[in-house]
Amino acid sequence: MNFQVTVLKVLVSYRDGFAVMADLKRDMAILATSGRDWAERTKRLAARVPDLDIFSQGLIVRMNGGWRVTDKGRSVLEIMEARSAPAQATGLTPVRAVEEPTPATTLSPMSSIAPVRRKRDRKRRQRDTVRRRQASAS
After folding, report:
1. What is the 3-state secondary structure (H, E, C) of the chain?
2. Which segments show compositional bias classed as Basic residues (predicted)?
3. Is there a domain that residue 57 lies in?
4. Is 115 a domain residue?
5. Number of domains within the chain
6. In the beta sheet, which residues pair with residue 68?
7. 33-89 pLDDT, tens per residue?
8. Is residue 120 situated within a structural domain?
């Protein structure tokens, strides 16, 4: 269940909601090793939609070597993160709030992955520049 919540959160963090498998795996590994906070947060979110199945419910589609979150997937994630959300909007089983969210649980952890992604992209660009220079020097 936590895996499915993490997949939704990671895909929503991408501008168009699509990620190739390598990027998805990398981002999920970062979150999985980030500590107990992420695991606890995903457990709380998963408890709000107990029968979550991202593939059979059409929340995620497989395409072009990756996965894309659907509009329905975005709305289910919004319901999971909302304080009191109507389950009828998505047609899923009623959302059962386990606990009242605190300000710490209502903040999106995906904002913390953006600097990691920027740093990784910057290093990749620097590495590519060095390789191009080495290739043109030979």
Report:
1. CHHHHHHHHHHHHCCCCEEEHHHHHHHHHHHHCCCHHHHHHHHHHHHHCCCCCCCCCCCEEEECCEEEECHHHHHHHHHHHCCCCCHHHCCCCCCCCCCCCCHHHHCCHHHHHHHHHHHHHHHHHHHHHHHHHHHHHC
2. 116-138
3. yes
4. no
5. 1
6. 18, 61
7. 888 888 888 888 888 888 888 889 999 999 988 999 999 999 988 888 885 444 444
8. no
